[in-house]
Amino acid sequence: MNPLIAIPMGDPAGIGPEIVIKTLADETTQKTARCIVVGSRKVLEYAMNYPGMPRLEINTVTEPEEGNYAPGVLNLIDIDNVDMEQFRVGQVSGMCGRAAYQYIEKSIELANRRAVDAVSTTPINKESLKAGGVNFIGHTEIFSALTNTHDPLTLFEVRNLRVFFLSRHVSLRKACDMVTKDRIIDYVIRCTDALRRLGITEGTMAIAGLNPHSGEHGLFGDEEVREVFPAVEELQKMGYHVAGPIGADSVFSQALHGKYNSVLSLYHDQGHIATKTLDFERTISITAGMPILRTSVDHGTAFDIAGKGIASPVSMMEAVRLGVKYAPAFLKE
Length: 333
Hints:
Isopropylmalate Dehydrogenase, 12 strands, twelve-stranded mixed β-sheet
């Protein structure tokens, strides 16, 4: 039986409803996944009237096991939390921010009790969350709190390239200060465990260099000499298959072509640029290190094109595909 994927609909005013409908209308998705949407029936019906949108039969259920996972059917847990008289596509809205949070909350609840195999998330809007009184800045923080996970890991996957991040949304100055021996050791240990849970047990993890050419032994930047090299040496003594630092201008290409099973990027943009330049739409985020599996699109709510029927569902399809790919190994734990 195909894995069962929960899809929270995302911000109702963004492109989430549109890409969810298009993804569930996709023949490949229908053949490989069973998807249960958590969202608003009224908004989904409204979105099916956008230009060029496919029509699906909405089947409202209370539990995923009640779904009819046949082609042409959108199975929905309906959370009726959008006042359509106030609803405006493409605008920041506290009502929509609260609604998006409630869809995520329900999806996590389903995953926590193993009613679904994975959660594949759609975009939410930080301003709308704030306007709605939701005290989280994004998905990662919500999943961290609702799964009781401290410092979950971010893993990007695109084609054969997997990239972890030593730091995320901090200034570049602070990111440099976070490149420490102890932090690198901690992350490599946890990233290796995360890969194992996904079924990836072979290969070597590479640590990207921070400075140009990894600092040329301290000629222009000594973070590699002080922090990265000692961390790699200690990890190797502990039995971890890790290499580095490897110059960031080459390590991502090497990993893409199979030399490494993953790369630990030392700051946010270093890994984001590498993956998104390779293939923006197919770069998928996996939140690792949690008791549940979460994959996600890595784009925003795109308010500027919401409601026009032109949003690409490719990233959403890829997020579901990776949920299907990794759920069997992940759930063996």
